[in-house]
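User: What would this chain look like folded?
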Amino acid sequence: MSNVQNATITLYGAQDTVYLYTTEGALNDNQKAANAELGVCPEWDVNTLFSIDFSTYLAAGNIGSDDAAIDGWSVYRQKGDERTFIDTVTVDGNRRSFTDYSVVNNTKYRYYIYPSIGGTLASPMVTDPVTTDFDCWTLFLVNETADSDVFSLEKAYDFKLNFEPPTITNNTGANVLTTFSRYQRVRKNTVNCLSGTLASLLGYYDAEKSAYVETVDYADEIFALSANITHRKFLRDLQGRLMEVELTGAVTAQQQNYNGQIVSTGQIGWLEIADASNVIIFDSAQT
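Assistant: Here's the prediction, encoded as structure tokens.
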């Protein structure tokens, strides 16, 4: 790490303390006196490391004392300007990145990342706000964790190369009943779960080759989805609605040859089977 400045200040006794944090140069007496009356608290960004040790079991700041190892990171998510934070996930201390897939589209989020050191949470590193922007439906295959609402990602399939928009219905049924009057009656069931069909090209865009690619292995992987009973599955639509789903039939496909370029299209049905409003999906890569 370059351009790191270290400073240690030791204070004793009960007191209210005003301190000035400067990154360059020195303040003269007049400047110190003027700034001492401001009563402001300095802010730090993700590149600032700051620690306070009260010589007991109490600590503050975003790093530990004596360069203690970080046991884990507790990640909290703030949506927009809401004052309630969502306890997203806790990851190992050696993680250096985190991806949150359970977000709504076109929405601003901010993350508060608390380091855990010896069982104590230090002050968080706060990210800049980021606005989500995704342009396709995504099917997630996930692995369960100790938390029933938290899942680690096994594989994600983006239905971006779709040749027709996904269909969706809420499956509410109704029976029209004949009566002894001139009017009929309608009796509805209480079903209100979503289902539909996902359709897409059975290939992917290779960024290195700048070309659309289809392979036998990848097609076989897509076909195997319909028989997958190992992983739970979640589907996120364009708005960011997250649903736990199960695939309801076989993958059907068509192949055509356009001047030597094989193009395959496929589709599969899905059914919402459980509420996923509180589900968190995060990447499992240890990076």
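The chain has two domains: 29-131, 137-282. If you want, I can go into more detail on any region.
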